[in-house]
Structure formats: C-alpha cells, structure tokens
C-alpha cells in the first residue's frame, strides 16, 4: 500500500512513496533573568520540513536526477497527502541499494521550506559628486552610507562646527516578526461554521 499524492519531487517522478514524516515547529525565545527563570517575549514559526521514504525502479536514473535537481537549488512546490508546501528544497538524501534489489532505489529525502526575501541595494559610488548630491555626504542627513569613523565623530561632535550633529545620530531599528494579533475565541464549533 502507498500514500496517494503527487508522485513528484520537483520535476522528478518517484514510483512509490512509502511514508511521509511532517515536522512543524514553533520557535519560542527564552531569556534567563536574575532569579534564574526564563522569560519568553515572542514566538515565531520555523520552516516546515518533510521527510519522504521513497522507492524507485530505475535506481541510477532516479538517483542522478534527484542529485542534479538538488544541486540546482531551484525551489519547488510539494504536494503531499496532508498539505501543499511552497518553496521547498532537497536538504539531504539517504539512498540504499542492496544485493537483492540492485536496480531498485530505496531511501529517504529530506525536504526543507525556505523563506525568500527581497533585498535592496544602493547604486553607484557614494564618494562621487553626482551620487553625493542625490544621497548626501556619508553620515549626513540624506546619507545612504555611514560616516567614516574618526575621533571627533565618535563623541557626537561635528569636526567642522564643533556642535552636536543630531542628524547623524541613529535611532532604534526594530527587526523581527510582524506584530501578532490575539486570536478571538469563537463559541461555534468548526462543524457548525462549515455547515453554513
């Protein structure tokens, strides 16, 4: 008996999926305080992981195709019996062949969800006159670069006019997860909501 689902890992067709192991985890921060207790200030969802135990009749072709696809590092959609996973990569593979079934590939494939983010880049050389007009001098009001560290700037004093330059001081930058909203409990059962 096999589990019914899309029998592909990316573009590679797999003959049999013997089992699926799904791993979902919540990361909970822990910060020890003076009394020795740990306090938690937030939690975040970690990447999903799926382990597939597979079998394939054409061992050499399937193995080489899986290795080539793994090395291409192209994210793909995985459809299992429980869910649809986007942006998955093959993290690792453990394959076995033995004397009784030399042409059959038997093993496990560990799949890992990746989180893709966008990045931004500042164009040009900030030391050139044209870029300096657009972005300001390094460390200035319209700056896209930090000022070079020198002794006078370290104390917060502008070396040109000997006054504190408030525009160069940095503020706090918050990073991390988006603000979460509490879940409001609903007094209706799931079945009654589905029956609508």
Structure description:
With 196 residues, the protein is α+β, with helices and mostly antiparallel strands. It folds into two domains: 8-113, Elongation Factor Tu (Ef-tu), domain 3; 129-168, no CATH class. It is 15% helix and 29% strand. It contains four helices and eleven strands; from the N terminus they run ββββββββαβββααα. It has helices at residues 59-72, 129-135, 151-154, 190-194, and strands at 8-9, 12-13, 16-23, 26-28, 31-32, 38-39, 43-45, 49-56, 76-79, 84-96, 105-113. The strands form four sheets. A five-stranded antiparallel β-sheet has the order 3-8-11-10-9. A two-stranded antiparallel sheet has the order 1-2. Strand 5 and strand 6 (38-39) form a beta hairpin.
How do the helices and strands line up, and which of them pair or pack?
Elements: E1 8-9, E2 12-13, E3 16-23, E4 26-28, E5 31-32, E6 38-39, E7 43-45, E8 49-56, H1 59-72, E9 76-79, E10 84-96, E11 105-113, H2 129-135, H3 151-154, H4 190-194
Antiparallel strand pairs: 1-2, 3-8, 4-7, 5-6, 8-11, 9-10, 10-11
